[in-house]
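Working notes for the structural subgroup meeting. M.R. asked for a predicted model of this chain before we commit to crystallization trials. I am recording the input and output together here so anyone reviewing the notebook later can reproduce the run.

Input as submitted:
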Amino acid sequence: MGIKVKILILLSIACLWWGLLAKAERTVVVDKPRLELYVMDDGKKIFSAPVCVGKRHGNKKRKGDMKTPEGTFPISMIQKSSSWKHDFGDGHGQRAGAYGPWFIRLKVPGTNHIGIHGTCFPLSIGTRDSEGCVRMYNDDLEDLKKLVKVGMKVTILPDKKKD
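Returned structure, recorded in token form:
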């Protein structure tokens, strides 16, 4: 076997390994302008669902600004949240089931309160009504939980309009 053939074989093996290493990883995308969350795997959309995002347009700057952050953030925890309560400041006090069955916590600089979760307000899905988190129908969240893991990246696309 000649040196050229050996080099071609080695290059072929290197290309094969590079192709395996460069395979696209699964990611979650939140499209704020379209109020949609989807999961991409190897360049294909394998899941999509409508969502609710922050009441105000633009990138989150501080707690309480009612904006959903923009950028790419890793999932830091997946927590069972079915027993969690939240006071939405609407005069009804603490609401059971506020976060649905799961809270997929994102590692967002400056806060540890942002995540993807279910809701006790299903009519809010498809609107801009959250305090900054990404809300989903509880059934969709159950499906999403099966597709994600800690460390996976979530990209939140920016609003076209700013408040």
